[in-house]
């Protein structure tokens, strides 16, 4: 990773950009898309001139800056955050957009920063025999309580299958069980995935019950003292290194007063290998338990083991910021379409370089910055490009456009959760939300992937735009990964607001499906949540420009009409939307 400086502090306070990107691909504007006249940045020192239309050079420049080493991985509460939010404010001001939170572009999100002591050891008593699980190697744990010292002493272990309580599925892994004060151990994902049974839940496609966030929430509701999820790469859709990298270092949460749901004293993951060994010591076989937990009527299993842990953490009350800008509508400014992306990433792990990639700690060029270029400087660059296009659109949109860059996505979608509870535009006046997260930069595709395909009428609008690009829509190739529940639109969806999460598809014009999936797998395996997620000037960005044009087209249609799209009939979020609309009358 280059250590060259990309920005000076002075440029951060302005709309200036450092370094021109020599890329020629650009979008072809639709009939009412802005023309391609350039608009130089407003302050001296910039060598980049921004184009009114969505184009690859501007997109690349945004990503290059946001993912630079100077932004230090954009961790919430860090100097990297300050640089990020000031940069975003400067860009929105340059475009002429208005503050989206009263007279400010910033919405303060209160948070608690908790950093677990990585010397923590889980101590187990298995049939009278002591065992230990070490942090990072065998397990990772943390606390959501905000307390600097949490102790669990001699807590009985109970295996609860998938830790799911789903009345509509006639499924309850906690049936007849009192887990107060106990430690629950469970599988990731949900029963249909490992059984490969389409009759269980949604089969291969992950439901919200399969997400780790749900499992900890339910364990807390049940009164458990601790919860451990057994990791497996296929079920989680990522390897142990991703879990370790994501759960070590500073962790963030909303204060209890802003999020009063029950919280676990201790929660975390154990490796599949550690789980197999532990269960064998209790007289159980991990493979057999997978089979048992996949069957309706599964009964929880008390394990002859007890867990103790003395979890010490550094805790601080801090705050982070969402960045909100608005382009007021010309005719119906009280109605809005929201474009959103999360700006945060994992920061700088310089304190433990040997654990988190790059060279060993102490070596002169150890790479410890998690730059988050794809995840999610690309999404932020995308909403900036779309904002630029709308700000120059003629005629101007009838409805308002809100551009929302949220924090704390990597900590459990907390920034968007806070915004949904404190929206700039009432949710019953929010027509739709369009989310950009980890945009592909692997070339043009003949298709677009709609994550959560078959959810809302927004897909009908996207289909029309995509057909104009001679592209088709389809579901994500790996619905078992649960991406629909892993990005910020999900908080809007739970509140009833129709949400669209779409990006370039798998079938590349050069190399077809095989090339597309190979490139995406390469990113997932080698760069996702790793220091290697860096800006690369060799990216093929003509495809992401096409994607941004399509997503802009959906918003342009909605902003110039009186349509109120709904979720499709039978979707779980439709009733919440109907209640929102009823409240608007």
Structure characterization notes:
The protein has helices spanning 9-12, 56-66, 79-95, 191-195, 212-222, 233-236, 240-247, 272-281, 286-293, 373-391, 414-421, 458-468, 489-495, 512-526, 542-559, 574-584; strands at residues 38-40, 49-51, 98-99, 106-116, 121-126, 129-134, 139-142, 149-159, 165-166, 171-172, 183-187, 226-230, 250-253, 266-270, 301-327, 332-342, 347-348, 369-370, 399-406, 430-435, 447-450, 472-475, 499-504. It is globular and about 75 Å long. The termini are far apart. The chain is built from 16 helices and 23 strands. The protein is an alpha/beta fold and 585 residues long.
Inertia-based shape: globular
Number of strands: 23
Strand content: 15-25%
Instruction: Give the termini separation.
Output: 55 Å
Main beta sheet, described?
17 strands, mixed
Oligomer: single chain
Provide the gyration radius in Å: 24 Å
- Detail the poorly predicted runs: 1-46, 352-363
Secondary structural class: alpha/beta
| Mean pLDDT, all residues | 88
The level of helicity is 25-40%
Pfam family, one: Peptidase_M28
Keywords: Aminopeptidase, Hydrolase, Metal-binding, Protease, Signal, Zinc
Domain Peptidase M28: 322-546
InterPro entries: M28_fam (IPR045175), PA_dom_sf (IPR046450), Peptidase_M28 (IPR007484)
């Amino acid at each position: 990773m280059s250590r060259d400086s990309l920005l000076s502090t002075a440029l951060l306070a302005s709309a200036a950009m450092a370094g021109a990107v020599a890329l020629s691909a650009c979008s072809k504007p639709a009939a009412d898309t802005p023309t391609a006249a350039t608009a130089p940045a407003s302050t001296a020192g910039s060598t980049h001139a921004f184009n009114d239309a969505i184009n690859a050079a501007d997109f690349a420049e945004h990503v290059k800056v946001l993912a630079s080493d100077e932004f230090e991985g954009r961790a919430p509460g860090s100097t990297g955050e300050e640089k990020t939010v000031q940069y975003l404010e400067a860009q929105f001001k340059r475009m002429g957009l208005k503050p989206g939170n009263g007279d400010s572009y910033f919405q303060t999100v209160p948070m608690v920063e908790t950093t677990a002591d990585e010397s923590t050891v889980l101590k187990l008593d298995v049939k009278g025999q002591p065992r230990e699980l070490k942090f990072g190697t065998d397990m990772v744990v943390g606390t959501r309580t905000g307390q600097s010292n949490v102790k669990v002493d001699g807590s009985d272990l109970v295996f609860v299958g998938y830790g799911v309580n789903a009345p509509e599925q006639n499924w309850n892994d906690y049936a007849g069980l009192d887990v107060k004060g106990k430690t629950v151990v469970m599988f990731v994902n949900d029963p249909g995935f490992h059984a490969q049974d389409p009759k269980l839940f949604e089969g291969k496609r992950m439901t919200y019950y399969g997400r780790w966030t749900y499992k900890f929430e339910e364990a807390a509701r049940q009164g458990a003292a601790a919860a451990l999820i057994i990791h497996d790469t296929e079920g989680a859709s990522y390897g142990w290194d991703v879990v370790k990298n994501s759960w070590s270092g500073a962790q963030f949460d909303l204060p209890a007063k802003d999020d009063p749901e029950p919280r676990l004293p201790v929660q975390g993951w154990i490796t599949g290998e550690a789980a197999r060994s532990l269960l064998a010591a209790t007289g159980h076989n991990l493979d057999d338990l997978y089979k048992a937990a996949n069957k309706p009527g599964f009964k929880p299993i008390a394990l002859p083991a007890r867990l103790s842990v003395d979890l010490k953490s550094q805790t601080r009350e801090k705050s982070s910021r969402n960045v909100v800008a608005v382009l007021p509508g010309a005719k119906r400014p009280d109605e809005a379409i929201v474009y959103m992306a999360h700006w945060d990433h994992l920061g700088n792990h310089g304190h433990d370089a040997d654990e988190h990639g790059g060279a060993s700690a102490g070596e002169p060029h150890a790479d410890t910055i998690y730059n988050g270029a794809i995840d999610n400087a690309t999404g932020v660059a995308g909403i900036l490009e779309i904002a630029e296009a709308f700000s120059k659109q003629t005629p101007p949109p009838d409805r308002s456009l809100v551009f929302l860059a949220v924090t704390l996505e990597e900590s459990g979608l907390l920034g968007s959760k806070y915004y949904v509870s404190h929206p700039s535009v009432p949710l019953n006046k929010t027509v739709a939300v369009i989310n950009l997260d980890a945009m592909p930069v692997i070339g043009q595709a003949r298709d677009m992937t709609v994550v959560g395909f078959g959810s809302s009428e927004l897909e009908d609008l996207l289909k029309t735009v995509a057909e104009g690009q001679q592209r088709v829509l389809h579901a994500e190739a790996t619905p078992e990964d649960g991406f629909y529940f892993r990005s910020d639109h999900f908080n809007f969806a739970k509140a009833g607001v129709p949400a669209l999460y779409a990006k370039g598809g798998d079938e590349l014009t050069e190399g077809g499906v095989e090339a597309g999936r190979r490139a995406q797998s390469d990113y997932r395996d080698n760069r996702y949540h790793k220091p290697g997620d860096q800006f690369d000037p060799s990216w093929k960005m003509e495809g992401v420009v096409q994607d941004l044009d399509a997503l802009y087209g959906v918003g342009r249609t909605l902003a110039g009409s009186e349509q109120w799209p709904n979720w499709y009939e039978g979707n779980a979020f439709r009733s919440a939307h109907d209640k929102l609309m009823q409240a608007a009358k």
